[in-house]
Amino acid sequence: MAKHLRIKVGEFTFIFKYETEHPELLHIYAQHLMQPKDAIDTFFEGAEDKWDEQHKRFETSTESITILWFWKVQDEVVYIISCYRNY
Question: What is the model's pLDDT at position 1?
């Protein structure tokens, strides 16, 4: 079973998945060298959220970073799927 890191910021809890093959590394770090702070900052500072109906997730971007996420619990718990730099 996959492990997760939970970080509470104000009224929100953010969930980040650890890699299955490298359980000491968060997925966003192992795949894209990103840290939880990058994703959390993007959640709060990003432009308008776009809903991806096909994948049932939101996409939020700043000028330099994009996060893919969904509500695990509406308006309370944010599950971060991915976080990457915009090139």
Answer: 62
Q: Tally the domains of the chain.
A: 1
Torsion of Cα atoms, 35 then 71 then 48 then 57, to 10°: 90
Average pLDDT across each block of 10 residues of the chain; the chain has 87 residues. List them in order.
91 97 96 98 93 97 97 97 96
pTM score, whole prediction = 0.94
How far is residue 83 CA from its own chain's centroid? 6
Host domain of residue 18: 4-81
DSSP 29-78: HHHH---HHHHHHHHHH----EEETTTTEEEEE-SSEEEEEEEEETTTEE
